[in-house]
Amino acid sequence: MVCGGFACSKNCLCALNLLYTLVSLLLIGIAAWGIGFGLISSLRVVGVVIAVGIFLFLIALVGLIGAVKHHQVLLFFYMIILLVVFIVQFSVSCACLALNQEQQGQLLEVGWNSTASARNDIQRNLNCCGFRNFNPNDTCLASCFKSGHPCSPCAPIIGEYAGEVLRFVGGIGLFFSFTEILGVWLTYRYRNQKDPRANPSAFL
């Protein structure tokens, strides 16, 4: 039976926003776990992940309250925000899937040069020094450098995982972008449905 009733639309919208709430809490938890275990020391990276998690949590909260109370204004703003997020996320996901190896290398080099703390994390965790080459006069947190052994550059090591990570991120982004457009459609339909408890005679 097709889900077309008021209660079914409400339950689907609530379930979708509960999923977004769980994802947002997972993002915040992963960021806290990375800091707690010393895997990430870059405040910029952690800040971005936490900000995305909080933003997603707030969107889910607005959608959940709007769905439970059938609040027209909240549902309208939720629908608009979700549509904007869908457009941005769908574009970024397609870009991640469309990058070739040369573009991936350029993107990684830009990220490598943009923040020192993330660069130190990569060198320490992957046991490498420098992106394509390393100046011995520079500092490196890799164990190979501290022990005096020759260190390999980080670009080939990162490049092995970059394609898989980008495809994974692009695929996850596409999946959630389609759930967002589903949320926009559910919200639009739910806003235009009448609550049978408020006016039962409208369905007689």
UniProtKB/TrEMBL annotation:
* Keywords recorded for this protein, A-Z: Membrane, Transmembrane, Transmembrane helix
Membrane topology of the entry? Multi-pass membrane protein
Tell me, what's a Pfam family for it? Tetraspanin
Which residues are listed as membrane-spanning?
Answer: 12-40, 46-68, 75-100, 168-188
Q: Where in the cell is it found?
A: Membrane
Q: Which InterPro entries match?
A: Tetraspanin/Peripherin (IPR018499)
Q: Cellular component terms, GO, for this chain's entry?
A: membrane
This protein is called what?
A: Tetraspanin 13
Organism field: Cercocebus atys (Sooty mangabey)
